[in-house]
Specification:
By secondary structure, the protein is α+β, with helices and mostly antiparallel strands. The protein has 14 helices and 18 strands. The strands form 3 sheets. A 6-stranded antiparallel barrel has the order 1-4-3-2-5-6. This is Flagellar hook-length control protein FliK.
């Protein structure tokens, strides 16, 4: 097996001798940390293992101070230790140690292959994680920090099955490069499926109206007859809209922070955090949670209407799950959705209108497709926001539906953190791009740059009257900047559009381009 500095494939081994007391304490499969004391001469060098200086025979060069991880592979006249680093520059395998677990230790045998879930854990000085194995969860100590901070399925090999068992992770570690490759592929898959949110928001607002909650609410055609949508589904749509932030709440810092938190961008991250809790509880509902609930209810509703004999339309159907149950659906969406779709809802007082069935089915299919596109849109923002460049530059894309009276406005945010500075003294540079459409004011964009306490702000309005209106109020913004201790740099209003757009699909990272293709 190769080790750093060796290119050819060979069976690398260290043959160690005395002091006998140290060697006798070793067990087959045991992992040892060693450090080279002297470079080999005539194939023999000195290594430090557990504070003891041992003479080692090797067929490859070593450098003084070089760290090695060794595995005891046999105990004969001379104990054989095998290095575990397999490729040049590769990190050694991660090993983990379990505290006494009677219900697990009886299952362990040296060399046994296992499969489990490894969940990163915090709150310990030593690298640690939560291991989910054979239906049990146990905190384990790691030989080195995990390369990723998300839950992963790993293959394990039992190294020592003693009172304190030692397991070796066989699954190749997820590197930054492999993570970027996975994100790039997900972006390619998601981009064709997504669509801007305004279409969905308009449909949901129409469905939620007391006077127009039927097919016309879905298709936008007032000529469509009747209102076949079940009342529980209409109420679910209203709950999703009620949970959206309003225009007053996003005018202050706390309200805007809460709106970003509930945008759906962090749903999976919160779900991952709940897995580390002794008694996991679903996270608070957010916009993505609500859409997942609507998705499952639409699948259920479509199945119910399709199963109605003779094309009869359901007058009322039970929706599953309600809006606030979507947090659980986020982790089991596909399974739960298929189960819901295969279970007809209870129909009450069916409307005998066979001619309406095709229109109803088409309307449901349109709304279902719009919800799926909106979920893909949120996922697109999540993927873009998960990308970190090698130099530390990062962007977050957030789209915030905001209630404004009977309308729903959409605020687009792009938050950029500049690359790491070469010197620690330089402050981090943040840039926030904002784009929104306001009734009576037209398209509006803004860019705020912050470096330390110095802030620069630019506004762009396509409507000249809007640009003039903003210009009249710049003094008020300047006063408020200074009131919180900021130094005001550029502060201008422009007629036109910003040099760069803030839409997610126009700010995809360069990883979508495969330079090696």
């Amino acid at each position: 097996m190769d080790i750093p500095g060796i290119r050819n494939s060979m069976d690398t081994a260290l043959l160690a001798k005395s002091p006998q007391a140290v060697v006798d304490a070793w067990k087959v499969g045991q992992l040892l940390n060693a450090r080279v004391v002297s470079a080999p001469r005539n194939g023999q060098g000195t290594v430090n293992i557990s504070g003891a200086l041992l003479l080692a025979q090797t067929t490859f060069p070593l450098k003084p101070g070089q760290a090695l991880q060794l595995e005891v592979t046999g105990q004969v006249a001379m104990t054989i230790l095998k290095t575990l680093a397999s490729t040049p520059g590769a990190s050694p395998p991660v090993t983990l140690s379990l505290p006494p677990q009677p219900q697990l230790l009886t299952l362990f045998q040296t060399g046994q292959a296992l499969s489990g879930q490894l969940i990163p854990a915090a709150g310990s000085r030593q690298p640690s994680a939560i291991l989910e194995l054979a239906g049990q969860r146990v905190r384990v100590q790691l030989s080195q920090p995990l390369p990723v901070t998300s839950t992963q399925t790993v293959k394990l090999e039992v190294v020592t099955p003693g009172t304190i068992a030692s397991l070796k992770i066989l699954t190749p570690p997820v590197t930054a490069q492999s993570n970027r490759t996975a994100i790039a592929q997900a972006l390619r898959n998601t981009l064709p499926q997504q669509a801007p949110l305004p279409a969905l928001l308009k449909q949901l607002a129409q469905v939620a109206r007391p006077d127009n909650a039927g097919i016309a609410g879905i298709t936008g055609k007032s000529s469509q007859p009747g209102s076949p949508l079940p009342q529980p589904f209409i109420e679910q749509v209203r709950r999703v809209l009620v949970d959206l932030p309003n225009i007053q709440s996003v005018r202050n810092a706390d309200g805007l922070k809460r709106a970003v938190s509930q945008s759906g961008l962090f749903l999976e991250a919160r779900l991952a955090q709940t897995l580390q809790q002794p008694s996991p509880t679903p996270p608070p509902a957010d916009f993505k949670t609500g859409l997942l609930g609507l998705l499952l209810s639409l699948l259920n509703l479509r199945s119910s209407s399709a199963a109605t004999p003779g094309g009869n339309m359901p007058g009322q159907a039970q929706s599953h799950p309600p809006g606030h149950a979507g947090a659980t659906a986020a982790t089991h969406a596909s399974t739960h959705a298929s189960r819901q779709a295969s279970t007809p809802a209870t129909n009450q007082a069916p409307i005998q209108t066979p001619s309406l069935a095709p229109q109803f089915q088409q309307a449901l299919a349109d709304l279902l497709r719009t919800v799926e596109s909106a979920l893909a849109r949120i996922q697109l923002s999540q993927l873009v926001s998960s990308t970190v460049d090698d130099d530390g530059k990062r962007s977050w894309i957030v789209e915030l539906p905001v209630r404004a009276g009977d309308n729903i406005d959409l605020i687009q945010l792009r938050i950029d953190k500049d690359a790491k500075q070469k010197t620690q003294k330089k402050t981090t540079h943040w840039t926030v791009n904002l784009a929104l459409m306001l009734d009576g004011l037209g398209p509006l964009q803004a860019r705020v740059s912050l470096a330390g306490t110095l802030v620069h702000t630019h506004f762009w309005a396509e409507n000249p009257q809007t640009a003039a209106l903003i210009d009249e109020h710049l003094n008020l913004l300047q006063q408020r900047y200074r009131a919180v201790g900021l130094t005001v740099g550029a502060l201008k209003a422009h007629h036109g559009t910003a040099p760069e757009a803030a839409a997610p699909e126009e700010n995809l990272p360069h990883i979508l381009l495969d330079e090696k293709a």
